[in-house]
Amino acid sequence: MSGSADAGLALALLATTAYNCGLVVEKQALGRLPAISGRRVVALVLTLLSSPRWLAGFGLMLCGLGFQVLALTLAPVTIVQPVIASGVAIVLVLSRLVLRERLGRGEYACVTVMALSVILLALSTGRTAEVGHQASPVRMAAVAVPSCLLALAIAASAAHAGARKHGPPVSGVSYGIATGLLYGVAALAIKALSGELLHARGVTGLAVTVLSSPYLYVMAACSAAGLFLFQTALQRCRISILAPVSNVLGSIYFIVAATWLFHERLPADPAQLALRIGGILVACGVVVLLSRQADPARGAPRRPVPQHPGSRRPVPQRPAPQPGETDLGQGEAYLALGGKAHGPGQDAA
Question: How many domains does the chain have?
């Protein structure tokens, strides 16, 4: 591996560490803030800006994105992105130690296999991988626009499901898929922007190139949409589910799309190609399985409340009488059904 690729790998490690530590800090801050919603953008922004802790986490995330741009100028997508996706491990450790989140056995298994898919993708990278920088704007639009529309549709469906009073709690998988797609498109724009920066000369040239590039505004729009949606989900869902799904799915999307858009060659070795395809299929399959896992935070199911014969009104449950107490279960049931209390000297109606 060349010196530039080694530097890109080191920057990618720094990027994923800063980014995921920032996520955990944001999660801590959101737990102390009022409820936010992606539909009320102004109120959401004002609420977030009022929290110094959230701003600190956001600053760490911005540092991570900056390091990611630098890493992509030095190393190919197939080297950088598996390292970025390995930040799932950081989130899982910190969510357990700092946030005290718990996962069920099935969820632990899914997240572990998801991490395995990232390892498979890393092993599929050849030592002679080429860095691609140029992408056709038409191809970019053909990939980015449908992806953004699909992400928004999934996010709207998740928000509608979470708004139902008697519906199950939102696990974070749907939000993770939606934000993963949005962040994946933003990563494509970052990759394209990093390629344009290679041809800029001087500080003035860099500024002109950045401000005149459409990829800057695509990155800003997708990042902002993903940020608002992710913050809403982060407050409502467990980060140990939301972040792995978002990060790994976004990485898979980025690797597949960027390899085609930037003409980075697939591994010539059949074994490495099998690892690449296997990692992608495993990650996608795990996301499907994870969406079917029950949330242990929901608690034990409630027992059905028995009803009085001939009435639609439920009879309240009463614990067994303790020593020294009188069992008035029938009287309580009669009162619950609208009967009148009988005191001394009173006759039944």
Answer: 1
Judge whether 168 lies within some domain.
yes
Q: How far apart are CA 213 and CA 223, in angstroms?
A: 16
What range defines the domain where residue 163 resides? 3-297
Quote the pLDDT of residue 148.
94
pTM, two decimals, is: 0.69
pLDDT band at 133 (very low <50, low <70, confident <90, very high): low
Q: What confidence tens digit (pLDDT) does each residue in 28-87 have?
A: 999 888 888 777 888 888 999 999 999 999 999 889 888 888 887 788 776 787 777 777
Residue 24 forms part of a structural domain: yes
In a domain, 348, yes or no: no
